[in-house]
Amino acid sequence: MKPILIAIAGGTASGKTTVVDEIINHFHSEDVAVICQDNYYKAQDELSLEERRKINYDHPNSFDLDLLYDDLSKLMEGKEILSPVYDFKEHNRKKDETTLIPSTKVIILEGILALYDSRIRSLSDILIYVESDPDVRFIRRLKRDIHERGRDLDSVIMQYLSTVKPMYDEYIAPTKRFADIIIPNDTKHDVAIEILAAKIKDIIK
């Protein structure tokens, strides 16, 4: 049976991972595979750490969208893939580490620009955009980058103002028009998840 591909986009720290986890809870773990778009940032081995820190990671060109499309195509054909692994502290892909991802009944692509590439949209069965208040997203990102990614306060704020917010306005927010479902993540969205899970199960049947 052909897998179902669900693409979930939204601004940084909008709650995409929470939505993914809530969807997964409706299925057996072996039936769902999650692809994180962040792992498909381009390798920057030729650059120093300082140079890598200056890259605009919210621009579409920072992603290897060709590789992501190829890997998703393989999964949709029933083949397994070796996904790259990204190191946020080093701002680069890990050289000798990949993740084996099998083709499953439900494949979820999650990332800020998951709806950006028309080729990936054409592969997808359901397109979702997770929306959240900008102030809430900034606070969530601030906490995450400091506690989980080894960043300091000033660098997070500078990056947000110089690239994150402008790129959200220019590239991420406009992809909302492609979404089949828009999920507001400032309030409870149990009903939306229940409807979505029912739709996925209906497609599988």
How would you portray this structure in words?
This protein is an alpha/beta fold and 205 residues long. Strand 3 (81-87) and strand 4 (92-101) form a beta hairpin. The chain starts with a strand and ends with a helix. The strands form 2 sheets. Strands 2-5-1-6-7 form a 5-stranded parallel beta sheet. The mean pLDDT is 91. It has helices spanning 16-24, 49-53, 65-76, 118-123, 134-148, 153-172, 190-204, and strands at residues 4-10, 32-36, 81-87, 92-101, 106-110, 126-131, 181-184. The relative contact order is 0.23.
Content-based structural category: alpha/beta
* Major sheet: arrangement of strands: 2-5-1-6-7
Please report the number of helical segments: 7
Terminal CA distance: 10 Å
Computed over alpha carbons, the radius of gyration is: 17 Å
User: Which blocks of ≥5 consecutive residues have pLDDT under 50?
Assistant: none
Q: Proportion of β residues?
A: 15-25%
- Helical content band: 40-55%
Q: Name the average pLDDT.
A: 91
Could you tell me the number of beta strands?
7
Question: In one word, what is the shape?
Answer: globular
Order of helices and strands: EHEHHEEEHEHHEH
The biggest beta sheet is recorded as: 5 strands, parallel
How is the secondary structure organized here?
Layout (H helix, E strand, L loop, with lengths): L3 E7 L5 H9 L7 E5 L12 H5 L11 H12 L4 E7 L4 E10 L4 E5 L7 H6 L2 E6 L2 H15 L4 H20 L8 E4 L5 H15 L1
Parallel strand pairs: 1-5, 1-6, 2-5, 6-7
Antiparallel strand pairs: 3-4
